[in-house]
């Protein structure tokens, strides 16, 4: 946890708090222009609108957060992080090119150490901005792609540096929660490679903060149905190297998803709903987690791991608004998946779900209260390897999260957050040198606060 991370949090909060007194909370105080505009910096004297009308849109988002592990975990303590995401979007037609051509770039810069590595020892990070590995800071190109649509948006082709969690497995209700697994879930990041072959324990796949060269095709014959298929390079960027990387290997990760969408337009009068069925297949060869090439225990007999061709998983996502009245709405979501080969997959099945309530307080129309849970189960081969160590056998990790998104302005939100983590580290041995031999990590209670500004 660095001083710069705390300074970033303090600066982000100060920007909002120094202007907070100028806004009246009562209805009789007329709203100021500052509180109605979409971004903190406004229209730049008209330049922003001119650029957008000319085909160029730029965005900058700041996230600063503080998480305190108040009980359990490896140790109690506070962790601070901050992240900046710079985006640029170009409209090819407005710039004189063909209709339907767009381009996008995303640069992410983050600093600090999250509570997972420092204090909790869990696998399902409590923050979706937490840095992987032991990095304290990095700046990297996350995504960079061109997209061409045609046939009245019935066909879309995207190519470049892609992130799987931009489009696949997404649930709009789950997006309000902070735990990392509500984005690119543990079924993916716990089993797929992270681009660092010297560290076999580090996995991520092509999800935040890593991107990978890829190609995505979307076919949407009607407004209710869409089929997405993407091919990514098997090995994404190196997690411990910042900058610009375009790593291409001979193997591929193929992800496909069939979507049923209903009442997704802003002016739709019915209740929004979506159902997604998907899966992926990685064409590479994967090491067995327990056995060597002779079918014996790797730990007890040594040798090289037994090899398996391909890694696959299937999943389902459901998100349904079940009630809506004026500004208020109640939505439910459920995501579940399985990776059927326990020999190579650490997490063999996964489920998360929850409920979101928009405008929980009648006078706070833009706020959202969200409750979610997640569960990741460990496969048989990983458990068998643990038994050979004579240490606690990993079985699962689960958590519950309660989050309140307070929208103070279109460009400013505060999110108090509470998470309770069961079986941190999947119930395995406590890695601290001072831990009792054979002891596990106690269940942890974590309190957090995220401040988000859009410039």
Summarize the structure.
The protein has 455 residues and is mainly beta.
Secondary structure elements and their pairing?
Elements: H1 3-17, H2 33-36, H3 47-54, E1 56-71, E2 77-91, E3 101-112, H4 115-120, E4 137-150, E5 155-162, H5 186-189, E6 212-222, E7 225-233, E8 252-262, E9 273-292, H6 298-301, E10 305-325, E11 328-338, E12 347-358, E13 368-378, H7 380-389, E14 396-409, E15 412-422, E16 444-454
Antiparallel strand pairs: 1-2, 1-16, 2-3, 3-4, 4-5, 5-6, 6-7, 7-8, 8-9, 9-10, 10-11, 11-12, 12-13, 13-14, 14-15, 15-16
Give structural notes:
Helix content is 11%, strand content 45%. The chain has helices at 3-17, 33-36, 47-54, 115-120, 186-189, 298-301, 380-389; strands at residues 56-71, 77-91, 101-112, 137-150, 155-162, 212-222, 225-233, 252-262, 273-292, 305-325, 328-338, 347-358, 368-378, 396-409, 412-422, 444-454. It is mainly beta and 455 residues long. 39% of the residues are buried. It has 7 helices and 16 strands. The chain has one domain (3-454): Porin (Beta Barrel).
Derived structural class: mainly beta
Largest sheet: 16 strands, antiparallel, barrel
Compute the average pLDDT: 88
Q: Could you tell me the CATH topology label.
A: Porin
CATH architecture annotation: Beta Barrel
Strand order of the largest sheet: 1-2-3-4-5-6-7-8-9-10-11-12-13-14-15-16
End-to-end distance: 26 Å
Uncertain regions spanning at least 5 consecutive residues: 4-32, 195-201
In the residues, how many domains can be counted?
Answer: 1
Question: Portion of residues in helices?
Answer: 10-25%
Quickly name the level 1 CATH class: Mainly Beta
Shape descriptor: globular
Run of helices and strands: HHHEEEHEEHEEEEHEEEEHEEE
Number of strands: 16
